[in-house]
């Protein structure tokens, strides 16, 4: 069996964070192994608002043009009130400044953002290893040994560093007993990607009362996605449309 060179870094998780780190290491010629337990790339729209600061990072990584081309600006918000539909701009915009060159959040579904990052990574000669789950970590003064379950059995890989980019319920964080301080918002939410007829794509449609949070339903369109939240599961709906 050919001997695989030890990577300098193991990145656990090939989501947005893991892919971003992988691109940065690749362009610095630092060896790494990028693993993800999922069978393939994430397919949902989840993180769809690309904030100005994220756009600066994407510019630095050389992917901003393709991310802009994958989505668009937020459409107008259309609130359905007792008096009828009312359109309001989603954001108040001011001109770009050297400190804040990007002012306009973009609407791009997360699966397309991650696709752009994978494309950039491929240009640099790398790809995530899917179906590879980190199952154990042993660290010492010189580095870390990672146990990885692969489709062809368990493997132990030695590296100088292991980076946990494995999301909100991070195995790495829990293994190292690192806390995750924060606050629960006190709302229940459902995000879904579905097709829906009869709702135009020129607006971000919003029903219900967002302030009371009893039931608020939003449909984000413009090639992408939507979300809904409320207290009663029977009122949950949400829709999404991928770029045609
Ligand atoms: C409802 C919702 C709406 C959001 N909206 C926005 C938004 O509008 N704008 C925005 O910027 N962000 C948004 N976010 C946040 C955004 O989705 C996250 O910040 C982003 O996905 C975090 O990326 P990540 O790479 O850290 O983790 P993840 O995307 O969670 O990726 C972690 C990866 O690690 C892998 N993994 C986990 N455990 C292991 C293991 N043991 N071994 C190997 N692989 C493992 C998983 O399979 C996964 O692919 C939203 C999030 C939610 C839930």
Can you describe this structure in just a few lines?
The protein is an alpha/beta fold and 244 residues long. The chain has helices spanning 16-27, 52-61, 64-70, 110-123, 171-175, and strands spanning 9-12, 32-36, 49-50, 72-73, 76-81, 84-88, 106-107, 129-130, 133-139, 144-150, 153-159, 161-164, 189-190, 203-208, 215-219, 227-230.
Topology:
Layout: E1 9-12, H1 16-27, E2 32-36, E3 49-50, H2 52-61, H3 64-70, E4 72-73, E5 76-81, E6 84-88, E7 106-107, H4 110-123, E8 129-130, E9 133-139, E10 144-150, E11 153-159, E12 161-164, H5 171-175, E13 189-190, E14 203-208, E15 215-219, E16 227-230
Parallel strand pairs: 1-2, 1-12, 2-8, 5-14
Antiparallel strand pairs: 3-7, 4-7, 5-6, 9-10, 10-11, 13-16, 14-15, 15-16
Helix pairs in contact: 1-4
The protein binds flavin-adenine dinucleotide.
The site of flavin-adenine dinucleotide (FAD) has 26 residues, from helix 1, strand 2 and strand 9.
What does it look like?
With 244 residues, the protein is of the alpha/beta class. Among the domains are: 9-41 and 128-175, FAD/NAD(P)-binding domain, CATH 3.50.50.60; 189-235, no CATH class. Helix content is 20%, strand content 29%. It is built from five helices and 16 strands. It has helices at 16-27, 52-61, 64-70, 110-123, 171-175; strands at residues 9-12, 32-36, 49-50, 72-73, 76-81, 84-88, 106-107, 129-130, 133-139, 144-150, 153-159, 161-164, 189-190, 203-208, 215-219, 227-230. It has a six-stranded mixed β-sheet, with no helix packed on it. Helix 1 (16-27) packs parallel to helix 4 (110-123). The longest helix has 14 residues, at 110-123. The relative contact order is 0.19. The structure holds flavin-adenine dinucleotide (FAD). Flavin-adenine dinucleotide binds next to helix 1, strand 2 and strand 9.
